[in-house]
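Quick review question:
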């Protein structure tokens, strides 16, 4: 909104030329989202507590101490992230960008799916929400629509193309199979983030690290000079996705203020699915789908630990981990919650650096 209205008066007020700089608007978006989230937090949490008498239902088969330490904590805090994110994006992006609306559309749709899931859990006072089959159908439906529209606006030579990192232009043309591949990236990212959200502050840290990494990727892929220099695909208009990435960081920082141990509020599926969906959509839009599996390696690890646990138990009757996802395994081994969170954050930062290094090591 600022970009559209204020740049019209640059001839009269030269300082307004700042709004033509993506870096300036990115900084504005980050601080706007942070302060909105920080300011609205107390009232928002108070409102959640008033309507959620028992707070988020705790898994009966989860760590026993959670039944004591986390009982009564309200959920759906992801709405706070979405509100601050929405306001910041509206204020600081170029609203004529189709990519911005498409990515944000995925974010909202996944957030609504998560909110419905949270509502069902609260209504039934159970850790079971909507049926997994229905949830996957909704998520894949949103993802297929997103990819269809992306394919209509992306550079024609990149349609249905998957680029291989650490190589100079090596790619695979998946044809129509790309719809399934890219949908798995988005849905997989959303649900992996959801699985990671099991300890206070655990998920939001890697979310912000991944968002920062993709802010750089979106900036480089949307800049012809940098993309030529780095030998990565040039995708016009992805620069505006930087605003979404940094706004996500700002709203995440504000949310972390209240989600830090001991958490005053949980993000719930409302937050984890929407944030994961947003990151997956940005990875697809910037043509860095495979890089996401490196930068978001913590999410991949959490998801694989669940798959491995289920397959092992069903085929051999034995469990690989004491409990899945893997952060609960370390909890059962006696690691403190803060130790797990901080070490997972460290791993996330290292993986992000490896992923970003792929932009140069080609």
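Suggested answer, residue by residue:
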């Amino acid at each position: 909104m600022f970009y559209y209205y204020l740049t019209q008066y640059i001839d009269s007020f030269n300082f307004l030329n700042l709004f033509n700089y993506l870096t300036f608007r990115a900084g504005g978006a980050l601080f706007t989202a942070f302060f909105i989230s920080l300011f609205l937090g107390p009232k928002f949490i108070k409102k959640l507590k008033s309507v959620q008498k028992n707070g988020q239902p705790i898994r009966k088969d989860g760590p026993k101490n959670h039944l004591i330490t986390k009982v009564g904590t309200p959920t759906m805090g992801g709405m706070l992230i979405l509100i601050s994110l929405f306001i910041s994006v509206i204020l600081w992006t170029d609203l004529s960008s189709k990519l911005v609306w498409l990515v944000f559309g995925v974010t909202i749709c996944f957030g609504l799916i998560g909110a419905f899931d949270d509502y069902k859990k609260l209504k039934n006072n159970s850790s079971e929400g909507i049926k997994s089959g229905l949830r996957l159908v909704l998520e894949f439906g949103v993802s297929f629509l997103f990819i269809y529209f992306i394919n209509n606006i992306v550079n024609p030579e990149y349609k249905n193309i998957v680029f291989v990192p650490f190589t100079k232009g090596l790619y695979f043309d998946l044809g129509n199979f790309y719809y399934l591949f890219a949908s798995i990236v988005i849905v997989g990212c959303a649900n992996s983030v959801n699985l990671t959200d099991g300890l206070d502050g655990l998920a939001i840290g890697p979310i912000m690290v991944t968002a920062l990494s993709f802010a750089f990727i979106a900036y480089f892929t949307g800049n012809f000079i940098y993309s030529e220099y780095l030998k990565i695909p040039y995708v016009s208009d992805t620069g505006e996705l930087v605003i979404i990435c940094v706004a996500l960081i700002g709203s995440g920082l504000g949310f972390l203020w209240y989600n830090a141990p001991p958490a005053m509020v949980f993000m719930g599926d409302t937050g984890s699915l929407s944030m994961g969906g947003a990151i997956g959509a940005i990875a697809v839009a910037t043509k860095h789908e495979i890089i996401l599996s490196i930068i978001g390696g913590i999410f991949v690890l959490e998801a694989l630990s669940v798959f491995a646990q289920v397959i092992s138990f069903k085929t051999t009757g034995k469990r690989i981990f004491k409990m899945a996802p893997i952060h609960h395994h370390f909890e059962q081994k006696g690691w403190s919650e803060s130790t797990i969170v901080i070490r997972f954050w460290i791993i996330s930062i290292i993986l992000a650096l490896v992923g970003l290094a792929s932009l140069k090591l080609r």
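Why it works: The mean pLDDT is 92. The CA atoms of residues 7 and 14 lie 10 Å apart.
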